[in-house]
Amino acid sequence: MKEPSMTQAVTNSTQIYKVLLAGGSAGLAVDVTLFPLDTIKTRIQSEAGFIKSGAFKGLYSGLLSVMLGSVPSAAVFFLTYEATKERLRSDLPARGACQAVTHMVAAACGDVTSCLIRVPVEIVKQRTQTLSASSSWSTFLQTYQAEGFLGFYRGYFSTIAREIPFCVIQLPLWEFLKLKCSERSGQPPTALQSSVCAGVAGGLSGALTTPLDVVKTRIMLAQAGTEEATGSMVSVLHSLFREKGLTSLFAGLVPRVWLMALGGAIFLGAYDKTKEFIPDTFL
């Protein structure tokens, strides 16, 4: 049975704009809606700890940076994901293991490209969330003055190392669950079904990749020149385990699982639903 999907080839300009608009809208919706939960998760994972990082104070600190970055980041992710998926489908059978590999590779490619935008946004957002600065703009200036342009890409590879495992679990699982829903009903999945499938996939993926998220957060928040700031993911992971035990690697597990489950439901569900409202003759 051919996989039901609302997505079409992104080889013409109309489809490209549909993916960009739907992806950007989905990114903005999830980041703004779940921002307070993301702030709580970041503060729990920070070296200073939840209380010293601000506790429940200023839960929307850093929102401006996210609003500016979420739209282009999500748009680039979905454009790359859809284009890569369509290209691989033309070369590989659209079934079984080949289908899963197609979704995994497409998700990985989407993350590598979108992180070029997302990582600087994450740097500014997380440092503002932990109250190291009063606003996104002051965080931006402090980072640039202290570390220059490359300071905005500290943690790029640790972010990629977190995002790729997350997405190669989440996206194929989301596509698989949608396929099963379609096979059962005999029709393409509804937006609600797509959201539920995305929530299940996101929560599971978030739980499994929490240690990588903790390490990424520590590297991004570390003071310039410190061991954590200059160390590799492996060294930071080993240091955390040695000093604070296994539980430190799962700091923020509960808010992260909720964040990824709700985020996945909103992000992927909104993407599918928004594409329904953008007609082929939109542009």
Write a structural description.
With 283 residues, the chain is mainly alpha-helical. The chain has one domain: Alpha/alpha barrel (Mitochondrial carrier fold). It has eleven helices and no strands. The protein has helices spanning 13-33, 35-45, 63-91, 96-129, 136-147, 156-185, 191-208, 210-221, 227-230, 233-244, 253-277. It is globular. The chain starts with 12 loop residues before the first helix and ends in a 6-residue tail after the last helix. Keywords: Membrane, Mitochondrion, Mitochondrion inner membrane, Repeat, Transmembrane, Transmembrane helix, Transport.
What structural keywords apply?
single chain; 283 residues; mainly alpha; Mitochondrial carrier fold; 11 helices; repeat; mitochondrion
At a glance:
Solcar repeats lie at residues 14-87, 98-180, 189-277. The chain has a single domain, classed as Mitochondrial carrier domain (Mitochondrial carrier fold), CATH 1.50.40. It is built from 11 helices and no strands.
